[in-house]
Specification:
Elements: H1 2-12, H2 22-27, E1 36-39, H3 82-91, E2 95-99, H4 105-108, E3 113-115, E4 118-120, E5 126-128, E6 139-145, E7 158-163, E8 169-171, E9 180-185, E10 192-194, E11 207-214, E12 217-222, H5 236-246
Parallel strand pairs: 1-2, 2-12
Antiparallel strand pairs: 3-8, 4-5, 6-7, 6-9, 6-10, 9-11, 11-12
Length: 254
């Protein structure tokens, strides 16, 4: 469904594209084929035990039962085989746009980012906030935007986003030095515009959209569901700008 919404949006706004399947990604040499790769929620695996994409909940079908013309669509994105090829794609100048849980690619690439929704334990360690303290399903929240950043051109300083327990980041001290910048964040303890939000004050200061330089390429992380059900037209520009901005060339005016 996530991929279908994205494809519909790209079709409506006349962006040429093709659907890419795991075997193509795993084969590598991606920079020679593509300028931009877009990963919707659920496409990129998390770290540790969650090493395959989240929608692989059933056993893979037996290849003998699949018509030959569809065999190149089998497989799944994995941390062991696919992620190294995606990192190489970035390093060689490619652009990746990652939405929702697929922003986990930021951790795979070693960006100086961390989960903002954590609490400190008595021993000094951190753990994700439990649902008894924080839970924000399917709601509309307001964020502040740095619209001087090319990724946010044409977007107001404040905009409403579709949010579904989406990833929230904080930047480590070395982030700016390593080319990682916040593009949008929460600047209120009460960002709720519509829906339901438990523990919404924890969102204050959390970063929701990140721009990062990885080698010669660009990686854009969008925590909120900027294309959810092809409905939130107010945030489509984050997607469109990312497609153009990543491969753009800086021109110095005299």
């Amino acid at each position: 469904m996530q991929s279908g919404w994205l494809r519909w949006v790209l079709e409506q706004f006349d962006f040429p594209f093709e659907v890419v399947y795991p075997p193509v990604l795993d084969a590598g040499n991606l920079a020679s084929k593509y300028d931009v790769l877009i990963f919707v929620r659920g496409a990129i695996p998390g770290l540790g035990r969650d090493s395959t994409s989240r929608f692989r909940r059933f056993p893979a079908p037996d290849p003998k039962n699949i018509p030959p013309e569809y065999l190149d669509r089998t497989g799944t994105v994995t941390a062991a085989k696919t992620i190294p090829q995606l990192i190489k794609f970035l390093e060689e100048g490619g652009t990746i746009l990652a939405i929702g849980s697929s922003t986990s690619i930021g951790y795979h690439t070693g960006l100086p980012i961390a989960n903002a929704l954590v609490e400190k334990l008595q021993d000094g360690t951190e753990k994700p906030l439990p649902r008894e303290k924080y839970f924000v399903p399917g709601s509309i929240l307001q964020i502040r935007v740095d619209n001087t950043n090319p990724l946010a051109y044409g977007i107001p300083e404040k905009v409403d986003v579709s949010f579904n327990n989406s990833p929230i980041f904080k930047l480590k001290p070395e982030a700016t030095m390593k080319g990682v910048h916040p593009v949008a964040w929460f600047d209120s303890k009460n960002p709720l515009r519509s829906g339901w939000a438990w523990g919404k004050h924890y969102l204050d200061g959390g970063i929701v959209i990140v721009e990062a330089q990885v080698g010669q390429g660009k990686l854009f992380l969008y925590g909120p569901e900027i294309i959810r059900r092809a409905q939130p037209h107010g945030t489509f520009k984050f997607l469109f700008n990312g497609i153009y901005y990543g491969s753009s060339t800086t021109v110095k005016l005299k």
